[in-house]
C-alpha cells in the first residue's frame, strides 16, 4: 500500500505513522492550494527560490492552519546538500519560518524529542525521509539528494540516535516520501559511482544503464538499502512509489521544471496541547 495518502488538496499524510502515534503530525505538501503565481504556482513553501516572500509566508500560514500546527512552533533550515544533522530544541522555534536569514544554517537533517516543535525541510525531487523511535519519542527528518545520499546522511541520523540517544535499531521506523524516480532521473558515471559506493548491494537493485554512461536511478531505493545495511529492520521501512516528476498535477519538480520551480515541504512534529 502507498504510505503517503492525499489528505486534502494541500498535503499528503502518513496514515501508518499516525497509527503508531496519533499525536504525531507528519506529511508532505503538494503544489496546490497556495497563492504563488508563475513558476511557483501555487503552494510554494521555499523562501529561497525567488518567489515573493510574502506569498511564501502566506502559503506557510495556509499549510499550518490545515495541519493545525502554528507557524510559531515550526523550525526551517538552509539546506546545502551536505550531511549536517542538527538536534533541535524549543529554543530553535521560529528559526527560518518568516525569513531565510534566521534558518538553521547548512542543515539537511534535524531531529528532536521536544514536543510542539515542527521540523520542516523543503523538496523538489530529492528524497525526504521521516524517522520515528516510539520508546525514545524521537522524531527526525532528512533531505537526501544524490550528494546527501553519497554522504550517507540517511543512515547518519540512525547512528546518532543509537550513539547519542541510546535508541535501539529494532525500534526505528522510517517513511520515505515522494521523490524523483528512475522513470525520470537520469544521471552520469560520476553520480552513479558516488552513490553506489555507499551500499554493498549490486547496482541492478537501484539503477539501470539506459545509454552508454547514462543511468536511470532511484535514490529512494539506495537510501532504503543504506538503512537496512545500517541495521534498521526492513519491515519498519515504508517507501512511497510516487515520482515528483511524473506527478505534475501534484508536485513541483526541479528537473522537470528546468530548475525554476517551487518547493514542497516535509514536516513532522509531536503535538501536545496546542
Ligand atoms: Zn517519473
UniProtKB/TrEMBL annotation:
Belongs to the purine nucleoside phosphorylase YfiH/LACC1 family. This is Purine nucleoside phosphorylase. It catalyses: S-methyl-5'-thioadenosine + phosphate = 5-(methylsulfanyl)-alpha-D-ribose 1-phosphate + adenine; adenosine + phosphate = alpha-D-ribose 1-phosphate + adenine; inosine + phosphate = alpha-D-ribose 1-phosphate + hypoxanthine; adenosine + H2O + H(+) = inosine + NH4(+). Gene3D superfamilies: CNF1/YfiH-like putative cysteine hydrolases. The keyword Hydrolase applies. SUPFAM superfamilies: CNF1/YfiH-like putative cysteine hydrolases. Purine nucleoside enzyme that catalyzes the phosphorolysis of adenosine and inosine nucleosides, yielding D-ribose 1-phosphate and the respective free bases, adenine and hypoxanthine. Also catalyzes the phosphorolysis of S-methyl-5'-thioadenosine into adenine and S-methyl-5-thio-alpha-D-ribose 1-phosphate. Also has adenosine deaminase activity. It comes from the Bacteria. The keyword S-adenosyl-L-methionine does not apply. Keywords: Hydrolase, Metal-binding, Transferase, Zinc. Its cofactor is Zn(2+). InterPro entries: Cu_polyphenol_OxRdtase, Cu_polyphenol_OxRdtase_sf, Cytotoxic_necrot_fac-like_cat.
Amino acid at each position: 500500500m502507498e504510505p503517503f495518502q492525499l489528505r486534502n488538496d494541500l498535503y499528503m499524510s502518513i496514515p501508518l505513522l499516525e497509527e503508531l502515534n496519533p499525536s504525531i503530525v507528519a506529511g508532505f505538501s503538494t503544489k496546490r492550494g497556495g497563492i504563488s503565481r508563475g513558476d511557483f504556482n501555487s503552494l510554494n513553501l521555499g523562501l529561497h527560490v525567488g518567489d515573493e516572500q510574502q506569498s511564501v509566508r502566506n502559503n506557510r500560514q495556509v499549510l499550518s492552519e490545515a495541519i493545525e500546527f502554528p507557524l510559531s512552533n515550526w523550525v526551517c533550515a538552509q539546506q546545502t546538500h551536505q550531511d549536517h544533522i542538527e538536534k533541535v530544541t524549543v529554543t530553535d522555534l521560529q528559526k527560518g519560518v518568516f525569513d531565510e536569514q534566521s534558518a538553521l544554517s547548512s542543515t539537511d537533517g534535524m531531529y528532536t524529542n521536544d514536543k510542539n516543535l515542527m521540523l520542516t525541510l523543503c523538496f523538489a525531487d530529492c528524497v525526504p525521509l521521516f524517522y520515528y523511535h516510539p520508546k525514545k519519542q524521537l522524531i527526525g527528518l532528512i533531505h537526501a539528494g544524490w550528494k546527501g545520499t553519497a554522504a550517507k546522511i540517511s543512515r547518519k541520523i540512525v547512528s546518532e540516535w543509537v550513539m547519542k540517544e541510546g535508541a535501539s535499531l529494532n525500534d526505528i521506523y522510517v517513511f520515505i516520501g515522494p521523490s524523483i524516480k528512475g522513470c525520470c532521473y537520469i544521471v552520469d558515471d560520476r553520480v552513479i559511482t558516488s552513490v553506489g559506493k555507499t551500499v554493498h548491494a549490486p547496482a541492478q537493485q537501484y539503477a539501470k544503464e539506459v545509454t552508454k554512461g547514462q543511468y536511470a536511478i532511484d535514490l529512494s531505493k539506495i537510501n532504503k538499502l543504506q538503512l537496512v545495511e545500517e541495521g534498521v529492520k526492513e519491515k519498519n521501512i515504508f517507501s512511497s512509489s510516487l515520482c515528483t516528476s511524473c506527478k505534475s498535477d501534484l508536485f513541483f519538480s526541479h528537473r522537470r521544471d528546468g530548475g525554476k520551480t517551487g518547493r514542497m515541504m516535509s514536516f513532522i512534529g509531536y503535538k501536545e496541547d496546542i
